[in-house]
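Dear all,

This email documents one entry for the complex benchmark we are building for the journal club exercise. For each entry we list the sequence lines for every component of the assembly. Then comes the predicted three-dimensional structure of the complex as a token string, followed by one or two observations. Please use this as the template for your own entries, and keep the labels exactly as they appear.
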Amino acid sequence: MGDQMPPMFPIISDEEASERVGAVFADIRETRNTDFINNLWRVLANDPAALETTWEEIKRVMAPGELSPMIKDLIYIAVSATNNCTYCVRSHTASAKAKGATDEMLLELQAVTALANKTNRIAIGMQVPVDDAFI
Amino acid sequence: MGDQMPPMFPIISDEEASERVGAVFADIRETRNTDFINNLWRVLANDPAALETTWEEIKRVMAPGELSPMIKDLIYIAVSATNNCTYCVRSHTASAKAKGATDEMLLELQAVTALANKTNRIAIGMQVPVDDAFI
Amino acid sequence: MGDQMPPMFPIISDEEASERVGAVFADIRETRNTDFINNLWRVLANDPAALETTWEEIKRVMAPGELSPMIKDLIYIAVSATNNCTYCVRSHTASAKAKGATDEMLLELQAVTALANKTNRIAIGMQVPVDDAFI
Amino acid sequence: MGDQMPPMFPIISDEEASERVGAVFADIRETRNTDFINNLWRVLANDPAALETTWEEIKRVMAPGELSPMIKDLIYIAVSATNNCTYCVRSHTASAKAKGATDEMLLELQAVTALANKTNRIAIGMQVPVDDAFI
Amino acid sequence: MGDQMPPMFPIISDEEASERVGAVFADIRETRNTDFINNLWRVLANDPAALETTWEEIKRVMAPGELSPMIKDLIYIAVSATNNCTYCVRSHTASAKAKGATDEMLLELQAVTALANKTNRIAIGMQVPVDDAFI
Amino acid sequence: MGDQMPPMFPIISDEEASERVGAVFADIRETRNTDFINNLWRVLANDPAALETTWEEIKRVMAPGELSPMIKDLIYIAVSATNNCTYCVRSHTASAKAKGATDEMLLELQAVTALANKTNRIAIGMQVPVDDAFI
């Protein structure tokens, strides 16, 4: 798999990380209880302010709420498949599995995503007006 | 709300429904336990084969599985918001609420959808390569 | 239907048209054999160079070739439904009908568009590798 | 071309196919009059119900109607290019060619797809209101 | 213009604003030097944490940097037109004009956005490989 | 990087170029003051009329105006990232850099693009009505 094109900005290693970036990396490691930091963060680290706020947003938005973190990962995958983001489909599928998502759940997710993309275009293509009951 | 543009094909009333279309309408009513048939089906009824198979697909895909029907509606909303389908956002929000989705769940859904759309473009725009761990 | 929002730029009337814009309007009228000039051209007329080149491109690309103008309008509708462009869905449906597209053709078009949007996301969501036979 | 990433679900071989999946594979072979079964079906086979219904839908929707199967493949390509689905662009181009699509047709298709994507954003970006004549 | 559909969540008035929401509203007013708070913030206020972080992000990202706030608004419009977000096209056009964007700039922006959407699909539809010089 | 899939149409070399295509290639070289002609043009050369008009459009639209060519490239990148066009993201980033775009500008661009994609879906997902002030 070494033939992917390189990113548009350097992948920041631990050694290259500034103090500010290093602090975020440390928090990622502690929060996720793993030494692994995936490329999204290492590339985003070229913009330390974006790294900080995006990481804080991920932590807050993906935390347990009325929806579980696993369900939130499934929603993330549905959006990422719709937008054709290979990186995000793969990273959030790994994340969902780590939180207990079964293959069956992932297949149900794919089926809903595919169907929604289909009926979205039926509604748009045929210009279906919104029912009063839905307004 | 009478100022929406009309659809590209007629809205088929119960009276105008052929026997084939009428059978689907009857199944929608029985399955959902309501007399109400929303415009998507009434417009799609111009193509009876598409009406039948799409309705069967919705019934099968949105049925209880390892994911609940309510969670499936939330996923539907996430896709529909990403694709900007007003009809689908509104109809599946109504459906999710009818199945017990709370405002808090819907707000969490919006936050995940917005964040995924953001990080999708970070991954794409910066051309972040997929980590070996995700392949 | 008077409640649509106004465009971001003025709708240029015949009276307001500069000589350069007027020449394009005249060519639209002659080419289409109608006095009617739809809003897309009247708004685009705020940028006369864009008006000229876009009109020339439409004339060239939508002309009879190995694909008929009607088939080209159907393809236009498929793209426009996928992109959710109400204006383009409606204007090209009117155009396709004027060129002989039947309701049955338009329904088949809708079905293909909906299905393609569905299987696009199956291929992307499940990350299906391209078969050697297709490369 | 062996460096594509693997799919998110296994590619089901003939040997691994359940009886239910095998029946669909057999129908694909008979319908298409070829032994070749492309990856989309082999990956989708992880969800046998989705495999069955999607295959049935493809058979029905892509069958000869008022539009020919070749024209339907061209429409499929236009949608797939707009959604950036590499798999679908390549598989349906192969399919269209097998049905007689010439390079010239495919180039005309590309030109229409490109132009529609351009004017879609002119209509949306300038917020052009739909003409009464199109409503 | 009173015929737009209502939002999916209430528009929070100043009177309904909690202390937390009120603090953000006050900062919006002070930062923008106007009493006007647009609907995006009043609807997002249903999720106070999202309101706070999104407002902070807007303030930080849209601030003067190596790109001016006006140029950033133009980029915002290009994305919003591509995604077909009417709200965002209109609000950021108003914002760009307030910062000095001329009609000519906005027309140039529209032309670039339209052209990029066109050539994006040429590159994707024809599956053009990235030149070594760009990697 | 030799493992990208080939394009759907041949890459036209200088030797294979017709007189008509050669004239465009010559103008590209003269205009850009380089011998290098990137793949987009060499693939598009399969459709000489499309090559001519697209090149003329690029020359006109990307020329200095009230917006500088560099700023126009940044807008191009924002659209291309939103549409997930790898080719266009990479080629216009190279072009922007050649015109003086700094890494800091490109990072600001990424941040605006990501944020716009996020708030686009907040506005759409929550169905925020356009304020009268923006109409």
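Observations: The two ends of chain C are 49 Å apart (CA to CA). Chain C touches chain D through 70 residues (CB under 8 Å).
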